[in-house]
């Protein structure tokens, strides 16, 4: 199908994901991207083609807050490509009020954690068929502000929260990404599939777009040159394509320096990682049949 690596990426139509997709295209890739909005997909494809005219780009459309859409997208991708070389779970959301999906999940947990878990599991066989596949999960040092992790309750908690309280929920979803990555290392033990997480740093993107002052704040930060999303995109590109990460697995890497970070407890706790995996598997059992 392609001499280039086949790279599946979520959240590539805006923010650091879009920048990373463009940079990856320049280095040679067959891009398989998810999108909810067809107009934003067109704009993204145009930007990619301007940077790298020969890059092949395929889009799969759906709402990543809905597990039925994630399942459909995962199956469609699996059927379309004989193998997947790199899976980048980048899509993220910082909601400032509680929104519950039609499936009964809290939107932030669904997009930030349940979707990467489900998509990775649906594409497991495709990753195993690649020569040296990589899974890259975009986490965050916001995970240090996660409050207290309570399993399995936190996976199904739909309690209302305020703008101030939203940070703990967001941080918790990013802690789950780190723990999920640690368990993936064990799940793929003995194979040629690696899994790593990263901290993209603070990025002035549309992540918190539903906060009323976000557009004004974004303009101010841009003027002050704070939160340049190119830095966050750079660590994604490095983990995906740089040879130094070829056989590295189970790591959590920092923006800028690319150094390994020690996550906050229970980020590295093996028993908690396994418990999280099993609780999630049970919760999403109907979507992985």
Description:
The protein is an alpha/beta fold. The protein has 10 helices and 7 strands. Strand 1 (6-9), helix 1 and strand 2 form a beta-alpha-beta unit. Helix 3 (67-80) packs parallel to helix 4. The protein starts with 5 loop residues before the first strand and ends in a 6-residue tail after the last helix.
Instruction: Please tell me the overall pLDDT.
Output: 92
Whole-angstrom Rg = 18 Å
Helix and strand string, N-terminal first? EHEHEHEHHEHHEHHEH
The gross shape turns out to be: globular
| Percent of residues in β-strands | 5-15%
List the helices and strands and how they pair.
Layout: E1 6-9, H1 15-26, E2 30-35, H2 38-51, E3 56-61, H3 67-80, E4 86-89, H4 107-122, H5 124-128, E5 134-138, H6 153-156, H7 163-187, E6 194-199, H8 214-223, H9 229-241, E7 252-254, H10 270-283
Parallel strand pairs: 1-2, 1-4, 2-3, 4-5, 5-6, 6-7
Summarize the structure.
The protein contains ten helices and seven strands. By secondary structure, it is of the alpha/beta class.
Notable characteristics:
alpha/beta; 10 helices; 7 strands; globular; 12% strand; 289 residues; single chain
